[in-house]
Amino acid sequence: MQDKSVTNRExxxxxxxxxxxxxxxxxxxxxxxxxxxxxxxxxxxxxxxVYLICVTLVGLPVMIAELMIGRRTKxxxxxxxxxxxxxxxxxxxxxxxxxxxxxxxxxxTCVAGWVYAYIxxxxxxxxxxxxxxxxxxxxxxxxxxxxxxxxWQLLVLLVTGAIIMTGVTKGIxxxxxxxxxxxxxxxLVVDIRSLTLPGANKGLNYLFNPDFHxxxxxVILAALGLAFFKLSIxxxxxxxxxxxxxxxxNLPATALTVMLSDTLVSIMAGVAIFPAVFAFGIxxxxxxxxxxxxxxxxxxxxxxxxxxxxxxxILVSIAATGAMLSLLEVPVAFMREKLNWSxxxxxxxxxxxxxxxxxxxxxxxxxxxNVLVFGKNLFDFYDFVTSNILxxxxxxxxxxxxxxxxxxxxxxxxxxxxxxxxNDGIHxxxxxxVRIVAPIAIIIxxxxxxxxx
Length: 453
Ligand code: TRP
Description:
Order of helices and strands: HHHHHHHHHHHHHHHHEEHHH
Membrane topology: Multi-pass membrane protein
Strand content: under 5%
Radius of gyration: 21 Å
Bound molecules: tryptophan
Main location: membrane
Subcellular location: Membrane
Number of strands: 2
Number of helices: 19
Transmembrane segments: 12-33, 45-69, 90-119, 150-168, 175-195, 215-241, 253-282, 307-328, 348-369, 389-408, 429-450
Keywords: Membrane, Symport, Transmembrane, Transmembrane helix, Transport
CATH architecture: Up-down Bundle
Number of domains: 1
């Protein structure tokens, strides 16, 4: 029974395909929307430095761990643990991952909806203004209304659901291979425009000249959470994607490539936004609306700005969609394989569930604004709980699982593809990171950042 479904499983077909799909999951609103605004809220360059340490010492090892678990078992996030550790509670890590997928998608689809809406607003010229008072009022009127953002959120879910329904691997591979390079080039154009605005160097200074007094435990927790969010780790998305990777792929090299490229895209988004923030006199800590205030202003200050702006929001929506595919695929793969549902049924169930939770995130900017959990509205709460609690917690258990339970021999085999590749010595460093450094770092940062110690 199990063997049959394993051989019938789809998979990514080439090295480039694996990288494109994994990068497609990593690159998304996290880079273009979240990275700049979280950097702005946490003081700029010093935050970025902490972030870089987090992705290297914690993010990369956990990402490799997830890919290895997935590829070895060729199963979804829950059953992968069941297979490697039968009748042990490790599968709960996968269950938490399925729940996280719904919570992340709740606010992710809301933001993606704003991005979709901005394609059309840019096309009609209704958001062009170099006055950030104007662009921020336009954004508020979208996010604070009721029907409009719900409509766009639903559209996002229908589009993403439709792609997932047709089967994930071939579609993802093809789309991401073409679109990632275009997104990259367009970001370069925005970077150049932003850098040539008067007063741009203030933004660069903010981004690259660290003020170490700004580093607090809350800042470190935010950086760690962002690292998890950015690399799509801590909830089984990379286990699920790993399960579509063939046995001859070099997993550590793939993860490293993805991590470096993803970081580059984030930095490029920062270079697009912050020079403009200072040139237009916006507060860097404007929060989740930052992208939607700055980008229209930047484009409005350049020739053919509207055309570029439409293109920009199209590409961001595609990047967001690529990332959402990996989020949707976690519950979908689980329902298909565990409950034996068809891909269509699993997708519909997931989409309906996300639409229900997601509408509460969207409406928390309007009619549900007074519903507060731990002092946060629902949108911020879903975001905080996933990035700062569930993903890091998942990361601890995944690292401990691979480092201590699965152990040295298995890691060695997966690193060298059973002796095919020479990854001599790297797996020893890796073992140290995944056994000791990553779990301890996450525990300390979480306990301190959440004010528990
Ligand atoms: N990494 C994506 C981004 O930056 C978001 C994402 C996709 C994600 N899949 C995930 C985050 C899984 C956490 C877990 O936009």
